[in-house]
Amino acid sequence: MLFLFGPLAILIQTACAGQVSDRYELAFSPYLGGSQFEHIRDICADSEGNVYGVWHDPLNAKNPHRNSWPDKSWFANAFRKSPKGGEGDFGVVKISADGRRCIWATYLTGSGKETGAGSVRVASDGSVYTETWTFSNDMPTTEGAYDRTHNGGADYYVARLTSDGSELIFGTYIGGSGEEIHSTHNLAIDELGNAYVSVWTPYGETAFAHPTWL
User: Which residue range forms the structural domain that includes residue 95?
Assistant: First the structure.
């Protein structure tokens, strides 16, 4: 469950989003999710007060209730309308400023496992940045991306979506042959749209796609 107290956000780990007015009165707090375990680890808001969340569904792909979000119309114009059958799903959802409707939602996932520590940020042009770490070798990437190949173990993954969630502006892996992992809030963007990330990697790891950076 998520509550917004003016500029302060408090997140309790369940798929629910909410807003509290500047007088500390509850403005809205809708549930989000399906019949199973979804959780939201990070949220942000745009200049119009719309709320964005990044969710993970860590259920095993064999679970019969997978992809059980109650209203498939949320995904009508999504970049990816359904999961690919891995061990954990990952995606972004946008909720209206009054909490009355889901404006859009999209999956961003591969056929392996995506973990539950993602972040989400909104740029001044409305585009949406998000990240996770992944064991999938088929995450959505884009032509000319920094790294389009899963490099082994867990790799960091960062993506940018159009403001309506229908297109992937860029998607890229960041990692080497070891385990690259992170925690929530390890993502920031500047006024030019550059993304800054913080990634943990094993001591002595030198197998990044561009080792001249190190």
Answer: 2-213
